[in-house]
Automatic annotation (TrEMBL):
Annotated spans, Disordered: 1-34
Keywords: Ribonucleoprotein, Ribosomal protein
InterPro entries given in the database record: Ribosomal_eL36 (IPR000509), Ribosomal_eL36_sf (IPR038097)
Gene Ontology terms describing biological process: translation
Family: Belongs to the eukaryotic ribosomal protein eL36 family.
Record field: transmembrane: none
Keyword Ribosomal protein: yes
Name by which UniProt lists this protein: 60S ribosomal protein L36
An example Gene Ontology CC term for this record: ribosome
Protein backbone atom coordinates (compact mmCIF):
# COMPACT_ATOMS: atom_id res chain seq x y z
CA UNK A 1 0.00 0.00 0.00
CA UNK A 2 1.17 3.52 -0.77
CA UNK A 3 1.57 5.75 2.26
CA UNK A 4 -0.33 9.01 2.08
CA UNK A 5 1.30 11.31 4.67
CA UNK A 6 -1.68 10.90 7.04
CA UNK A 7 -1.34 10.27 10.78
CA UNK A 8 -4.06 7.64 11.09
CA UNK A 9 -5.65 4.96 8.95
CA UNK A 10 -4.50 2.19 6.69
CA UNK A 11 -2.25 4.40 4.55
CA UNK A 12 -0.65 6.31 7.40
CA UNK A 13 2.97 7.38 7.33
CA UNK A 14 5.50 9.34 5.33
CA UNK A 15 5.43 8.45 1.60
CA UNK A 16 8.61 6.62 0.58
CA UNK A 17 9.79 4.61 -2.42
CA UNK A 18 10.13 0.89 -1.67
CA UNK A 19 13.58 -0.63 -2.15
CA UNK A 20 13.49 -3.96 -4.05
CA UNK A 21 14.90 -6.87 -2.09
CA UNK A 22 18.13 -8.45 -3.35
CA UNK A 23 17.98 -12.16 -4.13
CA UNK A 24 19.95 -14.15 -1.59
CA UNK A 25 22.06 -17.16 -2.55
CA UNK A 26 19.90 -19.34 -0.30
CA UNK A 27 16.85 -18.42 -2.38
CA UNK A 28 18.65 -19.58 -5.55
CA UNK A 29 19.41 -23.02 -4.08
CA UNK A 30 18.65 -25.82 -6.47
CA UNK A 31 18.47 -23.66 -9.61
CA UNK A 32 20.93 -24.96 -12.18
CA UNK A 33 23.06 -22.39 -13.99
CA UNK A 34 24.14 -22.73 -17.62
CA UNK A 35 27.76 -23.08 -16.58
CA UNK A 36 27.04 -25.91 -14.14
CA UNK A 37 24.96 -27.71 -16.75
CA UNK A 38 27.75 -27.40 -19.32
CA UNK A 39 30.46 -28.57 -16.91
CA UNK A 40 28.42 -31.62 -15.87
CA UNK A 41 27.77 -32.56 -19.50
CA UNK A 42 31.51 -32.33 -20.29
CA UNK A 43 32.40 -34.46 -17.26
CA UNK A 44 29.76 -37.03 -18.27
CA UNK A 45 31.16 -37.12 -21.81
CA UNK A 46 34.77 -37.53 -20.66
CA UNK A 47 34.34 -39.86 -17.68
CA UNK A 48 31.36 -41.89 -18.90
CA UNK A 49 29.15 -43.90 -16.59
CA UNK A 50 30.09 -45.45 -13.26
CA UNK A 51 29.92 -49.25 -12.99
CA UNK A 52 26.66 -49.25 -11.04
CA UNK A 53 25.08 -46.94 -13.63
CA UNK A 54 26.08 -49.31 -16.43
CA UNK A 55 24.58 -52.20 -14.47
CA UNK A 56 21.34 -50.27 -13.89
CA UNK A 57 21.12 -49.42 -17.60
CA UNK A 58 21.51 -53.10 -18.43
CA UNK A 59 18.75 -53.98 -15.96
CA UNK A 60 16.47 -51.33 -17.49
CA UNK A 61 17.12 -52.68 -21.00
CA UNK A 62 16.11 -56.15 -19.80
CA UNK A 63 12.94 -54.72 -18.18
CA UNK A 64 14.04 -55.47 -14.61
CA UNK A 65 12.75 -52.16 -13.29
CA UNK A 66 12.20 -53.27 -9.70
CA UNK A 67 15.72 -54.68 -9.39
CA UNK A 68 17.14 -51.48 -10.90
CA UNK A 69 15.17 -49.35 -8.44
CA UNK A 70 16.39 -51.43 -5.49
CA UNK A 71 20.00 -51.17 -6.66
CA UNK A 72 19.89 -47.40 -7.15
CA UNK A 73 18.13 -46.90 -3.82
CA UNK A 74 20.87 -48.87 -2.07
CA UNK A 75 23.60 -46.86 -3.82
CA UNK A 76 22.06 -43.39 -3.56
CA UNK A 77 20.30 -43.57 -0.20
CA UNK A 78 16.77 -42.32 -0.86
CA UNK A 79 13.88 -43.33 -3.09
CA UNK A 80 13.58 -39.84 -4.59
CA UNK A 81 17.24 -39.82 -5.70
CA UNK A 82 16.75 -43.32 -7.03
CA UNK A 83 13.74 -42.28 -9.12
CA UNK A 84 15.62 -39.30 -10.53
CA UNK A 85 18.59 -41.45 -11.48
CA UNK A 86 16.35 -44.06 -13.13
CA UNK A 87 14.59 -41.32 -15.09
CA UNK A 88 17.93 -39.88 -16.20
CA UNK A 89 19.32 -43.26 -17.28
CA UNK A 90 16.03 -44.16 -18.97
CA UNK A 91 16.17 -41.03 -21.12
CA UNK A 92 19.79 -41.79 -22.03
CA UNK A 93 18.77 -45.30 -23.16
CA UNK A 94 15.92 -43.85 -25.25
CA UNK A 95 18.24 -41.33 -26.90
CA UNK A 96 20.75 -44.04 -27.76
CA UNK A 97 17.96 -46.12 -29.33
CA UNK A 98 16.72 -43.13 -31.31
CA UNK A 99 20.20 -42.46 -32.67
CA UNK A 100 20.42 -46.12 -33.65
CA UNK A 101 23.44 -47.07 -31.61
Amino acid sequence: MARSNLRYGLNKGHPTTPIPKAVRPSQRKGIQSARTKFVRSVVREVAGFSPYERRVMELLRNSKDKKAKKLTKKRLGTLLRSKRKLEELGTIIQESRRVGH
